[in-house]
Write a structure and sequence with these properties.
Distance between the termini: 36 Å
Shape: globular
Structural class: alpha/beta
Oligomer: single chain
Largest sheet: 10 strands, mixed
Length: 585
């Protein structure tokens, strides 16, 4: 490990005899089932919290439904006994640690030493990438090193001074090292969330989080197999993989990898921003939050899932059009013309129709506002109680408040159930609203103004975004990028396509698979009608990892961009191998 690496105490646990690394003993059927129960809901054990966190991470990423094909057409969830090593790790200069965890299977392949390093998608907790990295690597005898990259659901409740300890249980500040403990927070400041309130702008260091997790992984392999130490990047092949924000993190790691730690990188639907190309997520997400609700009222979206309710555009779409007109953002008078104007504005800024149609899901779920509120706070390095645009996070406690015995049940499940970006799991996103018929408009206008406006806050936010720019990877590093052509959250035209073009213009040779009919959330394919129209992305990620491993371990040539044949939507029936159009073995 680097002399600058700082790791706290390492917690070591074994997972055998009805428990395992990949599914915590649940198996595929249990992962797809109802949430794993706690024997004592107000005081779950570390093992119970871990089981539910693993289950939630699987269900948040993979389509485990009966039509999705997981376990039949692609993927598997075998029993993988082994050990876990987990700690809090801190980068030089950081205020707050990120959580790192290494899974070492008992069947670790010592003849072909393999370590996958991964970062959680979205703002998820430490198991956030288990469906990709764990699902591919553990059954093959690879160890897997995870980082939450400075995000996660280690929520701190300022009302009672409790946070999340290393084992996932809640503890009082001062009684144990906590995943996140904000300094000087007032008791009425609400819920402190690491991604939004750490003061570190963690996204600026996502690549370094991944590389530090890789070094932790090597150190834990030394501990697991002392007779075969040392494990180094020279004798252990290290592949970085991740999806969404995790995909962006591993591409950032590729650019930050000055020591040649990584042997290959496989990134799925990466949130990546490169100098002078594409658009950063905050820019197009705040634009979508403002304009897309109005644009979705246009006839172009008739019949699109999430864009219509009982065949008609929901009243909220027309109300947003009227609000934008009242605030001078649109000039058209008639509602139909307003929707057409908003749609034309989005198209003019680079949005493609496929991405806009699928973006209806993020709009109807109010995802744009939830995510950009957290990002704005992170970019501006705001502490809890001082989020921009009047936002805050508040516990959704029973009527009795903090003193109600049921409040302990709400808090106890946060680490296992939280996404890292409220609302959800009993935490509300408060503020940024008014009493009008379009109550979320004020917050969305304010968040957008932080990108387009002038003044210290706008300047500070843009500087925070600038700090997240990718750097070029070293020449010769194998990089495979897999992205859905119909991604409506991180459109390929704003992210992967500019990144790949930038690499190629700089003499690099990435492999780029643009998957027809695939969108961002495989888990959404379980929704009626939505899954009928799309293909899953995860099997293409597994296939890309197969190709990357064959290249670094056996010297096989990397695949061509054209390796993805014409994938097809799943249709109303179950997924078939013909839908994928890609040989998986």
């Amino acid at each position: 490990m680097s002399t600058s690496d700082r790791f706290g105490d390492v917690r070591v646990t074994t997972h055998r005899d009805g428990d395992d690394l990949l599914s915590a003993g649940l198996g595929l059927r249990g992962l797809a089932g109802t949430p794993a129960a706690f024997a004592r809901p107000a005081a779950p054990t570390p093992a119970e919290l871990r089981r539910r966190a693993i289950q939630g991470s699987w269900k948040g990423i993979a389509d485990l439904g009966p039509l999705g094909g997981f376990g039949k057409i692609y993927g598997q969830v075998p029993n993988v006994p082994g050990r876990e090593f987990t700690a809090f790790a801190t980068l030089p200069g950081a205020r707050v640690p990120h959580r790192v965890l290494v899974q070492v299977p008992d069947d670790f392949d010592r003849t072909k030493r393999c370590l996958l390093v991964t970062a959680s998608s979205g703002s998820r907790g430490i198991y956030g990438a288990i469906a990709l990295a764990g699902g591919w690597g553990l059954p093959r005898g690879c160890a897997v090193a995870y980082t939450d990259k400075g995000t996660g659901a280690g929520y701190f409740d300022t009302a009672d001074g409790t946070g999340v300890a290393l084992d996932g249980t809640r503890a009082k500040a001062g009684e144990a090292p906590l995943e996140f403990e904000p300094a000087g927070a007032a008791p009425d400041a609400g819920i402190a969330v690491k991604h939004a309130h750490s003061g570190d702008n963690p996204e600026a260091d996502w690549g370094n989080h991944v590389l530090q997790a890789a070094r932790f992984g090597l150190a834990m392999l030394d501990r697991a197999f002392p007779d075969e130490a040392p494990f180094t990047a020279r004798n252990t092949r290290i592949i970085a993989t991740g999806l969404s924000n995790g995909g962006g993190a591993v591409l950032r790691a590729a650019g930050d990898d000055e020591d040649g730690v990584l042997a290959a990188v496989v990134a799925l639907e990466p949130n990546i921003h490169v100098p002078g190309h594409g658009r950063p997520f905050y820019d197009y997400a705040t634009e979508a939050a403002l304009l897309l609700p109005c644009a979705l009222a246009a006839p172009a979206f008739d019949g699109v899932p999430f864009a219509r309710v009982a065949g008609a555009a929901p009243p909220a779409w027309a109300l947003r059009c009227a609000s934008l007109r009242a605030h001078g953002k649109l000039t058209a008078v008639a509602p139909g013309a307003q929707a057409a104007e908003a749609l034309a504005m989005l198209r003019a800024s680079g949005w493609q129709d496929d991405a806009l149609a699928v973006g209806a899901s993020s709009t109807s779920l109010d995802l744009w506002r939830a995510v950009t509120a957290a990002y704005a706070s992170a970019y501006l390095r705001r502490p809890v109680g001082r989020m921009p645009c009047g936002f805050s996070y508040r516990a959704q406690y029973p009527a009795g408040g903090l003193a109600d015995p049921a409040a302990a049940i709400v808090r106890a499940a946060w680490w296992a159930d939280g996404s890292g970006v409220p609302p959800g799991a009993g935490v509300l996103l408060a503020g940024g609203t008014d009493l009008s018929l379009d109550p979320t408009l004020p917050g969305n206008l304010c968040l957008r103004e932080l990108w387009t406006g002038q003044g210290p806050d706008a300047d500070g936010l843009r500087q925070g975004v600038e700090a997240t720019l990718a750097r070029l990877p070293r020449a010769g590093l194998p990089i495979l990028v897999v992205h859905g052509a119909q991604d409506g959250l991180i459109p390929v035209a704003f992210s992967s396509e500019p990144y790949v073009a930038w690499l190629r213009a700089s003499g690099r040779l990435p492999v780029f698979w643009k998957v027809p009919y695939a969108q961002h959330f495989d888990a959404f394919l379980a929704f009626p009608d939505f899954g009928d129209r799309h293909a899953p992305l995860l099997p293409f990620g597994y296939a890309a990892l197969d190709r990357a491993w064959a290249h670094v371990a056996e010297g096989r040539p990397l695949p061509e961009d054209a390796a993805v044949r014409e994938a097809r939507p799943r249709g109303p029936g179950a997924l078939t191998s013909e839908n994928l159009g890609l040989p998986l073995h």
